[in-house]
Amino acid sequence: MTDNAKFWTRLSRKYASHPVRNRAAYEKTLERVTEHLGPEDAVLELGCGTGSTALLLAGAVGSYLATDYASGMIEIAEEKLATERTNGKAHEGLSFLVADAFDERVTSEGAHAQGYDAVLAFNFFHLVETPEELLARVRDLLKPGGLYISKTVCLKKKAWLFLPLVAVMRLIRMAPYVNFLSFRSLEETIRQAGFEIIETGTYPEPYSRFVVARKV
Q1: Domain with 129 in it
Q2: Model's pTM, two decimal places?
Q3: What is the block-wise mean pLDDT of the chain (216 residues), using blocks of 10 residues?
Q4: Domain count, the chain
Q5: Domain containing 151 — which CATH number?
Q6: 208-215 vs 94-98, strand pairing mode
């Protein structure tokens, strides 16, 4: 298990106890994501955390594989799924898996023969140490014309404040790796990886960038 996976597993129960900070921005994100998904789509979510978003979106698509490299997060997601099924909500196409994007099970367990129709990543990309490699993998996982839909925390403007703090906290294993992105650098990285950006938004302002990008 990587240091980041250990960090998020250790934090998982505390993380799960916190409500969504900006409900309006979260609901706007879900609304825009749903607009791009179809009832027969095969969807992969990376960095799904405790599964709250997967549970809300899975009913709109054909199959939904939600993954996270932190076993503690997936344990909680499975608990939520079991509770919902007990309460009569089927979620037949939804499954959770402890895995990262490079795990071979991601391709064997969730994708159609041509790949996924959409790969989702919410509040995740800024925690990735090798973003170009991740996007190359995402592109490989998508079918022709498939969508990469993400919302990313972009703290470049606040790096002067947060970067020294994060560096110190990482030394004592109290913080994960954080990539201090700007909207421009985020979108340019996505384009250079072989995507056409077809929609952007800022939910909430001014630090979270929503991007819908099509594989070209």
Answers
A1: 3-215
A2: 0.91
A3: 84 91 94 97 97 97 96 97 92 94 87 87 93 97 97 79 62 72 96 98 91 98
A4: 1
A5: 3.40.50.150
A6: unpaired
